[in-house]
């Protein structure tokens, strides 16, 4: 994966005009890092590999898309639903945060934006607590 981080190509533009080349570049780079199967629905891959692939993909998105991915976006020809985005988000939790993953999953979020808002607030609170602790 370290090699993948060094390989750069144009981020997916917020208006999607470079979508086809972005998809092709993404597939090629994921295959080069032995992560090509992680984006195939029928494939069986570890949660760690799926998380690596999601991190790689997110690094190659326009900043405006990182916080505003919608169910209208198409990835590899499939429409991404709210449920898909929630599941992908939960699957990217680090293994040491399994309890948090289960707790957030049990809260029954139905919209991706709701989950992201709660996670962002939790992150801000955590950063504030760390700053207070350091001072």
Major sheet details:
2 strands, antiparallel
How many structural domains in the coordinates?
Answer: 2
Regions with little confidence, pLDDT below 50 for 5+ residues:
1-7
- Distance from N terminus to C terminus (CA atoms, Å) equals 36 Å
**Shape, please?**
globular
Structural class: mainly alpha
Number of helices: 7
Written as H for each helix and E for each strand, in order along the chain, the element string is HHHHEEHHH
Helix content: 55-70%
**Average pLDDT number:** 79
The portion of residues forming beta strands comes to under 5%
Main β-sheet, spatial strand arrangement: 1-2
Give an overview in words.
This protein has 135 residues and is mainly α. The protein folds into 2 domains: 1-80, no CATH class; 81-135. The protein is built from 7 helices and 2 strands; from the N terminus they run ααααββααα. A two-stranded antiparallel sheet has the order 1-2.
Give me the secondary-structure topology.
Elements: H1 2-6, H2 19-32, H3 47-59, H4 63-66, E1 74-75, E2 78-79, H5 82-91, H6 98-106, H7 112-134
Antiparallel strand pairs: 1-2
